[in-house]
């Protein structure tokens, strides 16, 4: 028998409602059949949205026109069948279809099911990793570690580890709070629609608790075990990211500049963890990260203009496209300039500007092409270049690190064993 | 006869109650909420033994996932307040994003048609496929859309942050209340999912 939810109601109420339900269901069907125009439009729009989702979710950055195989499933959804916990697999698939990665297909099917909001403890590590944007956190910790390594002091492994851990925890908190704030916006953008809070894998309270559980020990660790300056910078970074950058994303294009500062602070933190003071060298390293952010982010946002516009994000690429390209080029040139200044500040030797010139010129060249042509291909090239450019630059800086010569003739170098051998 | 069966079944097994919203297909006439913004009725009904909320696939228009809230046997006023707030926020969010997405798609289509007409081109090319504009031309539309909706977005933002905070605070209070009740031994049945702060409700 057609088991309706009202069957659960007690007594006469349930009976009365059941009868009403049958009549209403019948009229509902009729109404649906007569309602053609708007439903068709909705289907078309939905096709567009689904097509975009499918293309973007195929895991590849570029967009290919793929045969639309969504129509059968959309039509199925419009049927009034009771969907309990049956897998919604489209009834027909066109024969010519590129082999979809299994993970993508499974994710797509899983995304259409109703799920019980029960926390599975085995899934929690994965959920936390995605909540804290673990890959981004790892990059942030790497830049902080680079800042520490570049500082002209003997390397202390304990301090290094504590500083890295503290920075990582602070970054986890910042990222978690960011996701907590942005749930409805993330739901509407292809890039972010599989985040844990969007999917309801944990509750907002849980996410905030996790954030606090990371951030409070992280900042405390930095303040007490490293030094107060580093702790202050860590706390400042969290506040900047969550309370300035995140809301500003929807209000003004200045969010990009704030975001660049947020990215620049970790290497400064690494340096201050080592030396305990804000030296020009720290600011130089921060300057590298600051300048790098613009070609990186502007190129990334260039190809996401539609999503940003629909989601209400105010990014330079949407509202001020010319400025977007100019700023990317300007800051690529800034990287060249900063590399030249590095020896003057005493951070690296004179070989650094020379050996970093090729990669700096290359990214500037791509920025220039992006500036001139402003098309998707150039934006993509610039973005991918920025991904390897930064690690390479930091590595080169590390190899050219200026080794301080002590007054007594000894050499203070990076690793204590070498110094002890002298 | 069905009445007898219904009451007999219910007497045997306590059923979990789910928010009326999920059983919307036959709402009674004295429903106080105004015309629901969502066209699609929620067809899913969780099993009666489940004691958790359920989350569904993203909505077609708003891309937000609907939640069916579980109503515990002895719901406290605080829990009811939380549930209502979450429900209301969800509906409000859904209405906003539906309007936003539909308006965006509609205006985008209109803009494309307008541009094509200005160029003297038909909507479809020789092969029957719809013509599209290049990204530079579309960028004008994207900028225009953002500028036009700035005030709306700003006020939505503020309201969303406010609601999010309130919901989280309420959740914290509910979790605290439940923990205290369990610690004092006045727990409500054997709902282990509710006692710790790691509950998803």
From TrEMBL, chain A:
Belongs to the UbiA prenyltransferase family. It is a multi-pass membrane protein. Its main location: mitochondrion. It comes from the Eukaryota. It catalyses: heme b + (2E,6E)-farnesyl diphosphate + H2O = Fe(II)-heme o + diphosphate. One of its GO terms (molecular function) is protoheme IX farnesyltransferase activity. This is Protoheme IX farnesyltransferase, mitochondrial.
Automatic annotation (TrEMBL), chain B:
It holds the Pfam family COA8. The keyword Repeat does not apply. One of its GO terms (cellular component) is mitochondrial inner membrane. Residues 30-56 are annotated as: Disordered. InterPro entries: COA8 (IPR018796). Keywords: Membrane, Mitochondrion, Mitochondrion inner membrane, Transit peptide. It is found in: Mitochondrion inner membrane. One of its GO terms (biological process) is intrinsic apoptotic signaling pathway. It is a peripheral membrane protein. Belongs to the COA8 family. This is Apoptogenic protein 1, mitochondrial.
